[in-house]
Amino acid sequence: MSNETIVSFDAVSFEYEHDHSLLDEASFSVRQGSKITIMGQNGAGKSTILNMISGKFKAKHGSVNVIPSLTIAMAHQVMRPEDRGLTVRAFFEGCFKEKVYNIDPKIDAALEIVNLHAPHDRIVSSFSGGQQARLLLASALIREPDLLMLDEPTNNLDPAGIEHLMGFILGYDKTCLVISHDADFLNTFTDGVLYLDVHTRKVEQYVGNYFDVVEEIAARIEKENMKNAQLAKEIQENKDKANVFAHKGGKLRLVAKRMREKVEEYEENKVEVRREDKTIRPFTIPMQDDVIGEILRITSVSVIRDHKSSTRKVNVSLKRNQHLLLTGPNGIGKTTLLESIANGTAKGMTMAKDIILGYYRQDFSTLNFEETVYQSLVNAFKSYTSPEKSFEEYIRSVASSFLITKHEIFRKIGSLSEGQKGLVSFARLVLQKPGLLILDEPTNHINFRHIPVISEALDAYEGAMILVSHVPEFVAKIRIDETLDLGK
Predict the structure, then answer these.
(1) Tens digit of each residue's pLDDT (9 = 90 or more) over 396-428
(2) Angstrom distances, CA of residue 259 to CA of 238, 255, 256, 266
(3) Contact of 430 with 463, CB cutoff 8 Å
(4) 483: closest CA among 466, 470, 460?
(5) CA–CA gap between residue 372 and residue 391 (Å, rounded)
(6) How far from each other are the two terminal CA atoms of the chain, in whole angstroms?
(7) What are the residues whose beta carbons fall under 8 Å from the beta carbon of 281, sequence distance 6 or more?
(8) How many CB atoms are closer than 10 A to CB 97?
(9) Which pTM does this prediction carry?
């Protein structure tokens, strides 16, 4: 295997819009055959790096170098709106610049890799979120690229899908760049890490598997803090002595001067400690006032098997402070059921009158991408009275707790990263005060540091809740009163 550098960033700076700097003279290289993880806080610029390598985004300063013969394919996080109305065949035909004759066998081979079997004339929008994630993966794999770039590939995938993907990446003998917040998934194949520091806007490059790198970063921070603590102690001791000697007069003033010079030297030797990504503040999703009795009853559900729908009788009743976990493999109908409940079109469903519904959709389609974050938060919660804070201050304080800064609050939602859209969605839930909370894969795109805070908030939620998640560690930290398995 060649050890040739196939991609390099040389002092690259990049700004999104006019005042939102993501990269500042960032430099790194990617060698042929390596499997690299890109880490960093939501909104740090991970997807931007992939888009710069593909040529979609251009550097403001510096150079992005890609060897001319390199073929690149990228699997995006979410299906583009313009692709949702296509057939499977048309979707894959769009992956190539030129017409590919006899493309059906190639489609079947790519779908086999991602463990999805689908008619080529089926419309993309009819697939579940997990199945669309597999289509996006297959759309990159069908091109057999020299550089495969995967942006949150495990989002929406069930355990079988994740295991299948792991096996493929391990056996892929070309170069992979992967963005993911799934630590166990990453550790199976990673041999290097690019870490985007959201504070310095630099890229740190590490060698080793994912867990090794996380441990190395933690050890480095501890070492830097210890060094600074020792220097701070010596600085204070010399300052105290210098102050004493300065008042003694004579030769002791010279001693005091040397001590002050020593203090300056120690100050210069202090290192800038690598700051960890920030974590969202603990939060509570308040429940709608005056909700009593049964909130939701479900007596039947539609289940999809082999692309055919059938009805199954169930008996689910949700009252205040009851949490329901909805499970089943990709494509069984979980998202469809959640959508029909939210839209009020579900057969066999009865919902209490005037219930405020908080709906976290995995594709963020409940958000208006043309609104600013501020407008979206205001529209989620229009009545507010408090003697302590003005309405404006309250909206901004909620935004701040989800790491939405004063610069980001007036950006359009469509310009945010997928992870930031997720944090905006949680901020809206806090403001909505829902009586019924519906959550479809709420950990997708979210930085792993935030997930324990989110699970704690959901565990404490006192309204009725329906949760779909393929992350067992996340579900295990949330109180579940009943499970409805559509796969049974």
Answers:
(1) 899 999 988 887 899 899 888 888 999 999 999
(2) 6, 6, 5, 10
(3) no
(4) 466
(5) 17
(6) 47
(7) 401, 402, 453
(8) 6
(9) 0.69
